[in-house]
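Deviations from the work plan: none for this task. Representative record:
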Amino acid sequence: MVQYNFKKITVVPPGKDFIDIILSRTQRQTPTVVHKGYAINRIRQFYMRKVRYTQQNFYEKLSTIIDEFPRLDDIHPFYGDLLHVLYNKDHYKLALGQINTARNIVAKISKDYLRLLKYGDTLYRCKCLKVAALGRMCTVIKRISPSLAYLEQIRQHMARLPSIDPNTRTILICGYPNVGKSSFMNKVTRADVDVQPYAFTTKSLFVGHADYKYLRYQVIDTPGILDRPFEDRNIIEMCSITALAHLRAAVLFFLDISGSCGYTIAQQAALFHSIKSLFMNKPLVIVCNKTDLQPLDGLSEEDMKLVMEMKSEAMKTIPQGGDPSEEGVLLTMSALTDEGVMAVKNAACERLLEQRVEIKMKSKKINDCLNRFHVAMPKPRDNRERPTCIPEAVLEAQAVAAAKEKKKLERDLENENGGAGVYSVSLKKHYILANDEWKEDILPEILDGHNVADFLDPDILERCEELEREEGLRLEEAAAQDAFMIDGHDELTKEQREILGQIRKKKAMLIQEHRMKKRTAESRPIVPRKFDKDRKFTTKRMGRQLSSMGVDPSAAVSRVRSQSRGRKRERSLSRAEGDDMEIDGQHSNKKLRTRSRSKSRPIEEVAPGEGFKDSAQKKKAIKKSRDSVKNRNKEARRGEADRVIPTLKPKHLFSGKRGNGKTSRR
Amino acid sequence: MPQGDYIELHQKRHGRRMDFEERKRKKEARSVKKNSKDARKLLGAKGKRFAKKRYAEKAQMKKTLKMHDESTSRQKVDDDVEEGALPPYLLDRDQTQRAKVLSNTIKQKRKEKAGKWDVPLPKVRGVAEDEMFKVLRTGKRKTKQWKRMVTKATFVGPGFTRKPPKYERFIRPTGLRFTKAHVTHPELKCTFNLDIISVKKNPNGQMYTSLGVMTRGTIIEVNVSELGLVTPAGKVVWGKYAQVTNNPENDGCINAVLLV
């Protein structure tokens, strides 16, 4: 289904602007820097790009104009003729033709100059050629600027055309000028057409929409038509003729029977007969308007005869198969008093609908749809009664439900006892008490100068019992444990003792292992002064920190002091006193000469394994590894055991163009 | 009023806003300031366009003002000297009349023989050989340098067949061959797109003439049968000379003036 929307046509710029748009675009979108020293190929490419880009833009812009403007031969004949009436087909086609020629010429110019640019041997020559090429393209456009201006005007006008759908249900209002077509339109739709008491108030087609039987009808108001030869008709009249000729619609022919429009009934009848041929195959309704001024019955005999003639003509439009009833052919109404307006609309809609359905029924396509429709209307087979079947159980349940008394609600009580405001709800009646009689008793708040609530404890007895029970249980447990302790010691069998021994051994092993680890930890960095620039690791600071943690720092401080080397004299004295701090079981050795030497440690058992031949080899390896990290640790350098976050995206792998090298690594 | 003209409809129904006229007047009055501001502020291509437009407007304005002034003020008119007027000291001389009127064609032939032409462009810049030709290196090792390519526009007759490429000394690329020229008739002040028949003479040398190179100042022969010129004898002229007035290789077309 083609939608006729002329609002979407893009703006056609006037010739001068057109050139400016394209040239500035070229300037903005193509490179602007070129030097004499560049390789000649590069210079040529630079200018060729400019020429080609300009040509492409011209081509695109002109193509959109050509594509977007409707081709008069391709659109619905109604629109084709309307556009012809309004804008003159020849002129329109000529303008579009010129655009098309310009497009081709521009393409040809670009082709020629690109070829010449290939032979450009200097920057100057290339530039000259580019200038010439762009200049010639612009000249071409300048020459078609009148056509562009014309098309722009047409575009603006077309965008304002009423959006008439030529294929939908349509009601067309026609008649002499000033007979009340627009007034009817305003009554039936919300189109809001201008109504004035002079001829040709409506100068173009107007469209509105009305509803009938949940369907939407398009109502078209046309300008008045005068009874004169076809050639003499002006553009305004031609609009209505076009609509009449091409739209398959119900036609309302308006007749001013009062003659207040300035035309007699005879004249109007003459018009009717002259444009009769346009009403062929369309449901036609003759509407006698302005009955408030002149009722139909009061017409003179001659006029009546004319009206009847028209009616008989209109009757011919009813197809042969249709019912030959006369209603809905000649109707009277008065737009002023609203009398018969709806009747006219309904009659027109009804007849249009009938006709459309009939046409559809006649069409070939209908068979494809009809064989899918079926409305079943079964006939009764015999006289037997076949009531609906309800199971017994359901019936019973329904009966029970009906019989069951409703629970009496507080609301019902209220209604019984005088309604809202009078009835007061008894809050005490649902109390759960040992004795029902107590319900209504009044509990004193204060008794003997004491608050009763303070002494109230409803379950004190239960709690008491609970406590006693717990006590008993605990006592029993204690007794049982005592009994177990007394005779449990001897109950260890030999096996159990062995197991216990094993457990202890294992424990000892674990402790030893832990100690060894701890000792290794002693080779943690002792930060030399040169790396401790901020003097963070001082004894004073340590003492402060320890005391702030609530530990007596004196022992630790003195130990550290003793480790740091003082003057020789003092040391020999203090050494003589014996340094108890260092005593570490049997390994403590008084022979230690200096603190410069590290403490000796026992030669430990090292379990062989992990690829080592024996424990000696392993020990050697351990020592070696320790030595290797010692210096590094001392300087607080980064080692292989430190936590490392590798560079997630190494720059050298993610940047740069591919030069020499392999795909995986460059 | 058509249905779509909602703006006009609204104005018709409700009128314009109260201060419309005032605003319009003020806006118009202020537009001068806006223009001058634009003239100061706009940059680049936009500024260029604006300046050009403004200049044109101003020039036009000056012209009209002057025209209006002229209608009121008087000024001295110095009459033009008529064509063919004689100075007073020659007035008493007798005019010798040639007994026999030479036909135009004979005149042309004489001139041709003498090789002297009264042409619109009497002098042109000389074109050096290295500007005219591009050296092409040939041979398997690209060491030979005897081949030349013409870098200017050329005319190659329709019946031309190339020599075997191997021995062709001068190449006239197809991209630079022209067959048509825009010829201006100086008296008619009209320009026609005419076919070139041949290159008569290239001012830079005989060799270029024979090669058909067309540079500025070259005399070419064009087909003027379209113009419908007639000889005194009543024959239709079809070949006429014209001089190239532009640099065809730079402009991409040949402009020429008809020699009459």
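Chain B is about 35% helix and 20% strand.
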